[in-house]
Amino acid sequence: MKFCSLAIVTLWMLLPFGALKAQPPNQPDSSATESTPLKAIAEWDFEEGESAHFRTHGNVESDQEGPRPPEFPEMLPTNRAVKLDAEAYLSVPDEGEESRFDFDNGDEITLEAWVNTTSIRDGQPLYVIGKGRTNSPKFARDNQNWALRLMGKNGEARLNFLFASKPSGGGQHWHRWTSTLGFPVATGWHHIAVTYRFGDPDSITGWLNGKKTDGTWDMGGATTKPPVVDDDAVWIGNRFSGKLDGIAIYRKVLADEVLAAKFHRIGKPRTVVFATEEMPDLGEVPDGQVILQMSEGMPSGDRWLYDGESWPAETLRWFSDAFLLSRIPVRYESWGIRSSWKAPVLLRIAGDIELPVGTHQCLLRARSTSRLWVDGQLVSRLKPARRRGGNLEPIVPVPDPLVPGARRLPFPQQEAISELVIAPAGDSGSRRVRVVLEVIDGRPGNRTESGEVCVAIQQDGQGPFAVLSADASAPLLMTDDVIESKLQELEAELIAFEDHVRREAATSQDEFWNRRHSIARKIVSESEAGNAFQPPSESAGHPVDRFVLDKIASVQNQLGENQTPAAKNSQEKVFPILQEQCFRCHGEKEQGGLRFNSRQGILSTGESGFAAVVPGDPEASELIARVRAGDMPPTESGLSEEQIQVLEEWVRDGAVWVNHSIDEESMELAPVVDDSSFVRRVYLDTVGVVPNEEEVRQFLADESPAKRDQLIGQLLEDDRYADHWVSFWMDLLAENPTLLNQSLNSTGPFRWFLHESLRDGKSLDRMVTELILMRGSSHEGGSAGFGLAGENDSPMAAKGHILASAFLGIEMQCARCHDSPYHSTKQEDLYSVAAMLKRQSLAPPDTSRVPDAFFEGIGRESLIEVSLQPGVQVSPDWPFAEQTGVADDEHIDLLVQNPGDSRERLAALITSPKNRRFSKVVVNHLWRRLLGAGIVQPVHDWEGQTASHPEMLEWLANELVVHDYDLRHVLKLIMTSETYQRRALGKNRQASAENRFFNAPDPRRLTAEQIVDSLFVSTGSVMDVGELTFTHDGSEPATRRTSLGFPRRAWMFAGLNNERDRPSLSFPRAQPVVDVLEAFGWTGTRQQPIFERDMDPNLLQPGILENGTLTMSLTRAAFESELADLAVEARDPDVLLDTLFLRFLSRFPNADEKKAFLPDLSARFEERIVSAEHVEQPAEDPPLPKATWSNHLVPEANEIQEERQRRVRRGPPADPRLDRDWREVYEDVIWSLVNDRSFVWIP
């Protein structure tokens, strides 16, 4: 808010000197005195450079036009304001106890602002500015210290003042005052102010556009009680849709003449007049197509334009062939990451349609405000849908079809039928007309979604309805079968369009990442690690196999050496000394970076930089020097002279080491699996499902010697690769969306960011960087969703823990509250990372530290220490230079776009090519996923651990970096090796690093997602469980009630539980899927990262596969199912049995299996098909109304969902073409294959 310097002269006579001087918000008012009572203690005028005084959340647009001349002559012509969407706000942190923002009884307050809003409904509050009520877990929920708001009443916006007193015995603790005067919205800028002395309810006064107004305490009544005072933040604009300017807070009641002079406007009072309605011109439409256009930022979601308002610019344009749409496209920001539409949005569909001459019935279906034009004439319109709020809305009955067989109106859409006359043009019986549909979606308080939109006509007012199509020769009849098929086709087209938009946006960053990868390749080529190993020639075999075989050969040679006198001396004399004197600190523990329980350990350098043992040279061995000096072991007596001489002689003789725990069987190479086992394994490990019958037959028939390598490459490029691997990343990064209310560590659904990154083939360093930068929408699939942590007092500390364990192998869970007792990390390390993520210093909250009382009277030295003192601000610093080999120096400047951004620097430090830990940890994750055990175990906690094959780990890490961090390249390297393709007989997971040989992969059970998805693929079924949301009508914003869409693969599910145990909030069709997932180790709530699933067998697993609702439904030869068609079309029982085995187990049946199954399948095989005259089509269940959040407390909602549950448990009707007795035998065979052990174990 900037005033013209000349205009200010006219105010000097009214205002004390300095009254208009801006006071930066985060600076205390040290100059306020009785002589300058008008000094604002905080002021936001939103001019350039002021954003440092607040943080933005959501869609906030700066540099907007504020009140300006000539309408407001005192303002500067360049005066700026800020524009906010309904879910956006600005936040200003409190400054601690007794801050300038804290008001208590006896304190005076004046709040003022300039406001410009375009819509408000009766009873709707729009926050201008307030302190408290942020729902922060650090404070009570009802902690409003003060708030200036607008309240909708009688079609106007009224001034509204709100505060909360301390709750007491059932009495009202909310106190709200609403003014008598108001103003119509969408009439430009208005000045508002409220003055009040806390404790004196009669002192309150409102000011609107320079006029004084009284009002009423209309909630909680007038009170002298003090307000709640705490250290919660100040928020600006929460739920406010429109523009704000000139917000100020005073700790005085401003004089009437001062407030009266705040508003000076020239011109007649503004009135609301609708703009003239005209059909929009979308330009030329290609033949055979219709244009779909999206524009964001409509002034209101409930109306068309007022006079003087303008249409928003086009945001997206794409093409289709019909006036039919099931959803609007996903919005992507400039990097190609999911964002939010700046609602309300305008959807337009336009096309030149050939329509028959005559008088027709025209059908318009949409959810919200809509209008339909034909050749410039307004044909039909829909008003804004009635708002559904609360949870006691009436159940909406299922509508009857407009004509027999027609598709019913979907909930919660609206429809309008109007008469459409197509006049003749010449002798033709039809005429080409321009049709334009306009729909406004996303009004405040709702999710921005369209639902099913369509325009259809009933020719001559008779017969069926048909959706308007650009191809008049192929009418789209409005029946469920036709429309559902068309919607699937349109969904595929829309996904392809979204892929194009996203990938095109992502190219804006390609140059930066190409440069980074060039730097990475150069660093590796010049490093010692990069040149430490040259892969063997092709004649020497696969590099992975060479590493594995070299270790086995080395140990086998060592076993031969164990028979020498030196080995005998080691076993009888040296080993007992080390075991008794050294293993306590240097055995399983790794004190000083040294372990003496393996040859690899004793030859290492540790933290001192000197080799503990140099074979053949006692003088150069640090071990001998330390024991000679008496430094080690740290006991009073140390070692005896005889013991020291034994060690010296052992070193002088070459330090021969005898491995006492080698199991020679663990070095015997397992055979390579056959083609049937291989094709099943590789499909499961790449795309997450078993191959279908045709894919198995094709691979088995292929005689090419390169077919395995070719299939691996083909599957790694398959889109389903993302569907499989996204679950791994969701576990690792603790993706934890909630469908109802936030819960502990709940996040946004950043699964979509991960999935699209994998589909698009983003490099790993780029995906991780964009994750850490937390861009896009928090609640609609952007990487910003990673930054949320519900009910967590320090979200960035939680994220720091996840990043360190997932990508650096540094476990810091204990460091949340104290220094780690079993690790070297300290609490300060974790909060240094958290500060880098938060982009500012921060202190651990009191709730995240061990209280001093814990240590009092403990009676012994505590295992835990708290070296970080209470209240100490931790600065954004990189604490892991030693562990990772990368420092925060000028090298990092080359890897970032904004060197001053600590969050981006953290991302660069983690993903830097100099960070050897990052690439090693990641390839170790991949190795464990494919082989069943890591090269380093555990995968997330490397402190004190050693690699079983350090050279191979180094080589794989280099391969990742020099191939631009392409995960699929490393996966292909591993999977094309014989090591991966051997039979799963290994015991690597239980073995120590020294004895982990990877002579074979470990046995692996299918993941829960693989089991569920393979059930659907094997049975030929389509996953149809409905939308995962509690608000099917979109009547809550995404920040409160999200939608996870319509799952088509198991990774798309989330926890269905809610704290309200009501049938009306159940998911009858989704629950059977989740039951199977949970039985096999999946969890829908990842409060902490999951590095290894619980894969232990339990009683639920056979039970859920044998008798669970999902298995019983999918294994049924149901009406119109693939399994029924297979049975009907089978030539003979042998072919049918082959088909079933290929579908479910990816192989042909063996002789014993044929002997077991064929007799039963053959019995009455020729009579299995019922004659056509006796086939009775199963009756369809009548459709049920929709139970959703807005009606879930209505008793009928429980009955509806309970009926749905009964139908799901009953399962689909059997196919009437099959004889019942034979069909049940057939289904038993299928059931047996699903319950065969090999169905759930990777071969």
UniProtKB/TrEMBL annotation:
It comes from the Bacteria. Residues 1-21 form the signal peptide. One of its GO terms (molecular function) is electron transfer activity. Keywords: Heme, Iron, Metal-binding, Signal. Residues 566-655 form the Cytochrome c domain. This is Planctomycete cytochrome C. The lineage of its organism: Bacteria, Pseudomonadati, Planctomycetota, Planctomycetia, Planctomycetales.
